[in-house]
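My current task is to audit a protein record that another person submitted. What it holds is a sequence and that sequence's fold in token form. Thanks in advance; the entry in question is below.
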Amino acid sequence: MKKALYILALFLTLWSCQNSKPEKVMDKDIIGIIKDKDTLSLKVKKFVNDFIKKDSNAMVSIFSDNCKFYLGGTDSNSVDKKAFLKAIQFQYKYFSNIKLDTSSYYVETEYYSKTNNIYSNIWNIWIYDGNFTHKKYTQPGHITLRWENNKVVRFMDYGDNTPLMEEISHELSSKKSSKE
């Protein structure tokens, strides 16, 4: 009797495994894919490393000539490639020891099938020193890059400019007091 029950249990187990069907995902429901080790994500990681190394010439190689840069994430703060490079040099003037908290650093690229749009996103925490206040800053960052023909055509930085304003203010106040 026990043998018959074991055979029946085995039969039912095998039968239920054969009759279970995985849920089918319809193609119309898929709007795209996300990758983090693809060519574009690797280009973005190189861009971030070039920024940290202060190699602005290598850094700009991913941008198209007519790329628009949105600093602070709004249209009113958009600049061209030349102004963006000046803004980067400006940051190097005010900040040093620029690093990433590697535990928070993540890059992904989204490939949208319906619109053929491609976006890369960077999430991280920046760690850096103020050159005028001598404060140590730790700040979250998020950047979105839109790609066309293997080049970035839109760069959107959603970072907080408060540390930069503090450094500029401190520099100006120290210049003012040295003139008095």
